[in-house]
Design a protein that fits this description.
The radius of gyration is 22 Å and the shape is globular. It contains 15 helices and ten strands. It has 397 residues and is α+β, with helices and mostly antiparallel strands.
């Protein structure tokens, strides 16, 4: 299966796995070097920097009621086969944004007073300011303001369009301080938070499906002219099937640097994008603007199992048996299968205040902890302690 022939919306019916051989810059260029035509988006106000911008015309259409589903169909087209990025003007009223900014700044000040540095997936700890898990912190300390803020019609409109009902919202406040440097081009959660080697272990259909599981967004908490470093995007890059591998390759990141667009935002504007779009925060070249955005990640309700399982208790019970088997030179592949069937193999969800991904794109999973302990020959009591500590970090306990 080649990167140039796989359709962006297919689920990998041909089967197989992507490899470096599927990453061809010429194929990528043929996908992304396109112009967005306003006539394809009748509910939009304009096309700016090759992305679709919604404003007063959208508000007028939605007031009519029956047009909502037509608008959502248009948003899905924009996010899937279109540029992959949409902007809503004044999604949140600026006066509400200002009140929320005061609350977020108070959270940041409290973190600093407590000696907490907000690490980032793509920036050094302390370089910028970040509040992990801002959604529940905001709701608990400012419930009335939370209602005013998250009553945002644009958030519900695009989230329902992309994910259906019962979606799950999470939020991280990110402040890029003057001099804060640009991020490298990347895709986002899920596969975008993996190394190329890790992503390559997932089958083709998983690469094509994962963008439909989350929606990325950001609300501007200040005016963001280009010199402040608003997000860099490469429109249409979400249509490239092997992009989760390609985003790690230097020729693709170099192409991104040469061809990205950087739509400026005004306070209260919200941008939403397909997580497979190549993007990255820009460099804040201003001397005095602390560029604050509320980063929104909206997740599908379907990304959960049917029943709860106490995997920590399972690991504690199984570890002595696995350790004895490994010491007796049992088949290692068989033991790895047991770990995969019992331990939590994924690092998320977790409490990112306590379990920050500062040593990589994700903190270690429970399965990685167990297998590392087996390889190092740790005693069951020590593994039990580590499992409990990891569980406490993940839950914030």
């Amino acid at each position: 299966m080649t990167a140039s022939t796989a359709p962006s919306t297919a689920l990998g019916s041909a089967g197989g796995w992507f490899s470096d051989g599927d990453c061809a810059l010429d194929d990528f260029r043929s996908q992304v070097e396109r112009s967005t035509d306003l006539s394809d988006y009748p509910y939009a106000d304009s096309i700016e920097h090759n992305v679709v911008v919604y404003g007063e015309r959208l508000t007028e259409h939605l007031a009519a009621g029956p047009a909502r589903r037509d608008v959502q169909s248009e948003l899905v087209r924009a996010l899937t086969d279109g540029p992959g990025v949409v902007v809503f003007k004044r999604a949140v009223e600026p006066v509400v944004v200002d009140r929320a900014t005061t609350a977020f700044n108070a959270m940041i000040a409290e973190q600093k007073a407590a000696g907490v540095r907000g690490g980032d997936h793509f920036a050094k700890p302390g370089a910028n300011d970040r509040v992990w898990g801002a959604l529940d912190k905001f709701a608990i300390r400012q419930p009335e303001l939370f209602v005013d803020y998250y009553g945002c019609a644009a958030l519900a409109l695009v989230s329902e369009a992309w994910l259906g009902p019962a979606y799950q919202v999470t939020s991280q406040v990110n402040v890029v301080n003057p001099g804060g440097t640009a991020q490298t081009a990347h895709r986002d959660y899920h596969l975008g938070f993996m190394s190329a080697e890790q992503a390559a272990t997932y089958p083709t259909h998983a690469h094509l499906l994962t963008p439909a599981l989350t929606l990325q967004g950001a609300v501007a908490h200040c005016d963001m002219p280009v010199e402040t470093g608003p997000t860099l995007y490469l429109p249409y890059s979400q249509t490239y099937p092997a992009g989760y591998l390609a985003s790690h390759r230097p020729e693709f990141t170099d192409y991104f640097v040469e061809h990205y667009v950087q739509p400026p935002l005004e306070k209260g504007d919200a941008a939403f994008f397909n997580p497979a779009v190549f993007h990255g925060a820009g460099t804040n070249r201003s001397s005095d603007v602390r560029r604050m955005a509320n980063l929104l990640q909206v997740s599908s309700a379907f990304g959960r199992a049917m029943e709860t399982v106490d995997r920590t208790a399972m690991c504690k019970a199984l570890y002595p048996v696995l350790a004895r088997a490994l010491a007796a030179e049992a088949d290692e592949a068989r033991l790895r299968r047991v770990v995969a069937a019992s331990a939590e193999g994924y690092a998320f969800p977790t409490n990112l205040d306590a379990d920050q991904p500062v040593a990589g794109l994700a903190p270690p999973s429970q399965a990685e902890l167990v297998w590392s302990a087996l390889r190092r020959g740790l005693q069951p009591s020590e593994v039990s302690r580590q499992l409990d500590a990891q569980q406490a970090r993940r839950t914030g306990g």
